[in-house]
Amino acid sequence: MKLVIKNARIINPDQQLQADILIQNGVIDKIGKISEKADKEIEAQGKIVFPGLIDMHTHIRTPGQEDREDLESASRAAAKGGFTSICCMPNTVPAVDNETTARWIYDQARKIGLVDMYPVGAISKQRQGKELSEFCALRRAGCLSLSDDGDSVKDPSLLRKALEYSRMSGLLLISHCEDKNLSGKGVMRESSLSAQYGMTGIPSISESIIVARDIELARYLNTPIHLAHISTVRSLELIHKAKQEGVQVTCETAPHYCVLSLKDVVENGFDSRYKVNPPLGEESDVAAVRQALQSGVIDCIATDHAPHLQGEKELPFQEAPFGFIGLEWAFSLLYTFLVKEKIISLPLLVDKMSSVPARILKLEDKGLIREGNCADLVIADPDRTWTVTEDTIASKSRNTPFIGYTLSCCIEYTIHRGKISYKNV
Q1: What amino acid positions are annotated as catalytic residues?
Q2: In order of start, what are the domains of the chain with their CATH numbers?
């Protein structure tokens, strides 16, 4: 199919221009003045067009918990949010620790065809932290990265071996930055507020102590490591110093750590929809995360999309599971609270949600609107607002604190490999 986007305001991290875009056979064929006929033409005057978003950290709950989310519902939610590629974490039932399971996810997602879905293989068998999975087999199955997300690899000796094998297999290791011995039975960030309301706290050092350990291993082995869901001042200080010293460390944060703090937990009466891990931090943590996005200490933004059943999130705060969904509004949320507030620029937001993840994952034909690249694109109206409502959520789950939020920059088209995977006009 031949598709033309007319009068596009193209947003790349390093370039903005006004031009037409010709897409053929799933590839960006030409950028410039397009006069030839096409099977479909989209008028983009007044809109912004940017590369398809890439999420390095999603929870799809498949296999084993399809009542929370399945591959099709996750694909619809991702496309609605402007994502064209997502990485699915392996803490499923059973864990994605073998070639057969990983290949099944990869192949089924291709059949659905709305987004590219890359399974993240488990570092250790059954995510138990005792025996390494077969890295090369997981690579053959379509994995780009490995993680025991939900748990850090407790044994530093095993993590060392994993880093050594990751270098040989070409797979990126993603570390879940949490010491569960320190987290204990905590339910929110340890603070004066947790003490005041009698809630067991999770200390910030639970995150930063694993950050420090993993940086030292990466330094010693001169091997890349990616640190997940960074949320604290101290973690960012450690990462900043490591980068200055040449350690091959990259990291991500999630949209909620840029927008919400533990005060939101209290002010909303300990509504379980605000319960997430790592827990929402102090306002100083939010400020540090925003500054780290500006400075480049934080490389990218990932949703950590975590679906749960409604009944699970209706439990009291202390008993409810951690996590909430976010694929459908991540970009609009950050456009509203960061770009419109002039905390970061629009090209930088695109960089953090598309171009940098593409580089980290070595997806060489993604993340930029360039001739010859994969035709993964998003068309959005920066002046059109929309409201997050339960009845319009594409995900199977509804667990989010952002119900009722009115957001700017409505996504109108998501184009995946040259085909329209989502339309809202």
Answers
A1: 304
A2: 52-375 (3.20.20.140)
Distance CA 70, CA 67 (A): 7
Strand ranges (E), 246-322: 249-253, 300-301
Distance CA 198, CA 191 (A): 11
Tens digit of each residue's pLDDT (9 = 90 or more) over 36-83 = 899 999 999 999 999 999 999 999 999 999 999 999 999 999 999 999
pLDDT tens for each residue of 129-165: 999 999 999 999 999 999 999 999 999 999 999 999 9
Question: What is residue 1's predicted lDDT score, i.e. its pLDDT?
Answer: 85
Nearest to 153 by CA among 136, 168, 142, 166: 166
How far, in Å, CA of 200 to CA of 275, rounded?
A: 13
By C-alpha distance, which of 136, 153, 129 is closest to 98? 136
Q: What is the pTM of this model?
A: 0.98
What is the CB-side half-sphere exposure of residue 98 using CA atoms within 13 A?
8
In the chain, the N- to C-terminal Cα span, in Å, equals 21
User: Distances from the Cα of 174 to the Cαs of 17, 196, 227, 256, in angstroms?
Assistant: 35, 35, 6, 20
From the CB of residue 266, how many other CB atoms can be counted at a distance below 10 Å? Answer: 17
Residue 375 phi, psi dihedral angles, 5° rounding = -85, 65
Concatenated DSSP letters for 162-186? HHHHHHHHTPEEEE----HHHHTT-
Q: Say which amino acid occupies 83.
A: F
Could you read off the pLDDT of 379-396 as tens digits, one per residue? Answer: 999 999 999 999 999 999
Which one, of 411, 256, 271, lies nearest residue 325 by Cα? 256
Exposure string (b/e) for 338-357, b if CB count within 10 Å is 16 or more? bbeeebbebbbbbbbbbbbb
Cβ atoms 13, 300 nearer than 8 A: no
Burial zone of 185 (CB within 10 Å; 0-12 exposed, 13-18 middle, 19+ buried): exposed
The distance of Cα 387 from the centroid of its chain, to the nearest Å, equals 21
Q: Are 354 and 108 in contact (CB under 8 A)?
A: no
- ∠ CA 140-299-169, nearest 5°, is 20
Going from the C-alpha of 379 to that of each of 7, 17, 335, 415, the distances in angstroms are 11, 14, 14, 8
Half-sphere exposure of residue 83, counting CA atoms within 13 Å on the CB side? Answer: 32
